[in-house]
Automatic annotation (TrEMBL):
The gene is LOC116358809. Predominantly monomer of isoform CD22-beta. Also found as heterodimer of isoform CD22-beta and a shorter isoform. Interacts with PTPN6/SHP-1, LYN, SYK, PIK3R1/PIK3R2 and PLCG1 upon phosphorylation. Interacts with GRB2, INPP5D and SHC1 upon phosphorylation. May form a complex with INPP5D/SHIP, GRB2 and SHC1. Signal peptide: none annotated. Most highly expressed siglec (sialic acid-binding immunoglobulin-like lectin) on B-cells that plays a role in various aspects of B-cell biology including differentiation, antigen presentation, and trafficking to bone marrow. Binds to alpha 2,6-linked sialic acid residues of surface molecules such as CD22 itself, CD45 and IgM in a cis configuration. Can also bind to ligands on other cells as an adhesion molecule in a trans configuration. Residues 62-129, 143-226 form the Ig-like domain. Pfam families: Ig_3, Ig_CD22. It comes from Oncorhynchus kisutch (Coho salmon). This is B-cell receptor CD22. It comes from the Eukaryota. InterPro entries: Ig-like_dom, Ig-like_dom_sf, Ig-like_fold, Ig_CD22, Ig_sub, Ig_sub2.
């Protein structure tokens, strides 16, 4: 164990609630069964026993490392000719049949790859292996619920520090954020990054702002925010 680091008691962790079964005899056997296994259960596990002696706390070092893998949809190709591939590091039987789902509904039985030139930014896609339909991959989908927030909130006064943040729900994660803005009726201009910081905002920064998020599946635009900077 790493010096000074107390391992977590998984029996007290709600993530494991109802999923732990102790099969040991508390003498020579410390067998533990974890049911309904999840990828986030991947960790190094050790047993611990405590005696009534001073400093009588011992760990089964180095423990057992558990790696949990599952199906994953990988996205390749361009915006108009994407390919979705259902992959796993698990060993499967020869030539398994894959089942593809769109928005949770079965759409096709196919090989591990799904080709289409009509994927929608607003739809989600997942896969499973035939015979194990209850074990879906996490869904992949284009950005959604893209929004702009301002910190601090409230009235914006010239000379203050203001941060604009663009956020979005997406899987795979957002690759890029692009801001578009038009100050005082001028032309639209762009800048990149999930945040834009005005260290000393000016009245000339008054204008319309929105952001566009993008991942391998598509793009999504936030609503336009009208920012009004007050003179001191």
């Amino acid at each position: 164990m790493e010096a000074g680091i107390e391992p977590e008691d998984i029996g007290q962790n709600q993530e494991y609630a109802g999923r732990l079964e102790y099969h040991g005899d508390k003498k020579k056997d410390c067998t533990l069964k974890i049911t309904d296994l999840r990828e986030r259960d991947s960790a190094t596990y050790t047993f611990r026993f405590i005696t009534d002696q001073t400093r009588g706390r011992y760990y089964g070092d180095p423990g057992v490392t558990l790696t949990v893998t599952g199906l994953q949809v990988k996205v390749t190709g361009g915006h108009q000719d994407k390919t979705l591939t259902c992959s796993t590091t698990c060993t499967l039987t020869d030539n398994p049949t894959y089942i593809w789902y769109k928005n949770g509904h079965k759409v096709k039985e196919d090989t591990s790859s799904l080709d289409s030139d009509s994927f929608s930014d607003t739809d989600s896609y997942s896969c499973a292996v035939k015979g194990h339909e209850d074990l879906h991959s996490p869904a992949v989908y284009g950005p959604r619920n893209t929004s702009v927030s301002v910190s601090p909130s409230g009235e914006i006064v010239e000379g203050s520090s203001v941060t604009l943040t663009c956020s979005s729900d997406a899987n795979p994660p957002v690759q890029s954020y692009t801001w578009w803005y038009k100050k005082n009726g001028g032309e639209h201009q762009s800048m990149t990054g999930p945040q834009h910081v005005f260290n000393q905002i000016q009245s000339s920064d008054t204008g319309e702002y929105y952001c566009v998020s993008q991942n391998e599946m598509g793009t999504d635009r936030s609503r336009t925010m009208n920012m009004d900077v007050k003179c001191e």
